[in-house]
Write a structure and sequence with these properties.
This protein is mainly alpha-helical. Helix content is 66%, strand content 0%. The radius of gyration is 32 Å and the shape is elongated.
């Protein structure tokens, strides 16, 4: 049978904990009751009523909580005959995870622990931990399904779900710690936080039955995310530089506006001006954005813009002249007429 152990170290009381306090109080009142003490009798009756009300409401409350709860796990044919893997997986769990499975601080993603202290995992250890983690989640999902169907014993089921997920999360944390070297080898320390998120995603989606290593999938996730963030930063940089160039083109020393050295102010000013222009003439605003690459893309030539707008190159040149005139008026504080061009 699956190795199972209860954990009561969490600081958040569960439904089972609360019911236990009520039952304890009720029993304490019964043991110390003096038949002539009406106050104790009233306390006992109140405790009994509270206990009964709690027992009646708990199933409905739990079903409401779990109605939209989905516990993600990677299914495996090993789950059908897990007894043959339980002893091996339990031995690896006890050796690697159990000594360090104290709950982590809540309130966000766990930081990257044990950079040098957590040893690398062998292929066997990794397979055992991943199989056990997903099997624990599988069992928890079955308990959730039973609660949804209205099965009896809701409070014990809730307690078991808590303990199963506690052990599964302890395994996940150990897998994170064992792969911190991988994170730093790809992105270094500065981007370790974002890379850890992708490592967690890889752990949750990794299918150990295919015979691959977790590090292979994690490397793909981390590198793809790093490339995506690099392109986003480049796009933002191009947009900021375009805004600064455009602002310098349309503002003069006597315009009353100075934004030298403040790229964010320059970009915000241009964005507001182009947005105001778009309210009067959307095509002119789009032309300026394409011409200067304000959306972070490469600036386009007059011919390329003409292809997008469906007009000739010379027509784009005329539209550009009008758009520049309107934008200059906005940046200098002039009012634009309601009907433009």
């Amino acid at each position: 049978m699956l190795f199972y152990r209860s954990h009561y170290r969490s600081g958040v009381p569960s439904l089972a904990n609360i019911l236990g306090v009520i039952l304890f109080c009720s029993g304490a009142f019964a043991v110390g009751r003096n038949p002539g003490n009406s106050f104790i009798d009233r306390l006992e009756r109140s405790a009994c009523r509270l206990r009964l009300a709690f027992e009646a409401a708990a199933p409905k409350t739990a079903r409401g909580i779990f109605s939209d709860t989905a516990i993600h796990f990677m299914p495996s044919p090993d789950f059908e005959n897990y007894d043959q893997f339980d002893a091996e997986d339990r031995q690896v769990y006890d050796r690697l995870v159990f000594p360090h499975e104290a709950p982590r601080p809540t309130g966000g993603l766990e930081p990257v622990y044990g950079y040098h202290s957590t040893p690398l995992l062998t292929r066997r250890d990794e397979t055992c931990l991943l199989r056990r983690m997903n099997y624990l989640k599988f069992l928890a999902s079955q308990e959730v399904e039973q609660i949804r169907k209205g099965a009896r014993g809701v409070l014990p089921r809730v307690a078991r779900i808590r303990d199963l997920l506690f052990q599964a999360n302890a395994i996940r944390n150990h897998l994170i710690q064992a792969n911190t070297r991988l994170i730093r080898s790809i992105v270094g320390d500065d981007e370790a936080g974002a890379a850890t998120v992708r490592l967690i995603e890889a752990i949750e989606k990794f299918d150990y039955t295919r015979g691959n290593k977790l590090s292979t999938l994690a490397t793909v996730f981390i590198r793809n995310d790093a490339i995506r963030r690099f392109h986003q930063e480049q796009k933002h940089t191009r947009g900021t530089q375009a805004s600064e160039g455009l602002l310098a083109l349309f503002t003069s020393g006597d315009s009353g506006f100075q934004a030298e050295g403040d790229a964010h102010l320059a970009q915000a000013t241009v964005e507001r001006a182009v947005a105001e222009l778009a309210q009067k003439n959307e095509r002119s605003a789009r032309l300026i954005a394409l011409r200067f690459g304000l959306d972070g893309t490469e600036p386009l030539t007059l011919k390329e813009i003409g292809t997008q707008l469906g007009v000739t190159k010379e027509r784009v040149r005329q539209l550009e002249k009008d758009a520049f005139s309107d934008l200059r008026a906005i940046l200098s504080g002039q009012e634009l007429p309601e009907d433009l061009h």
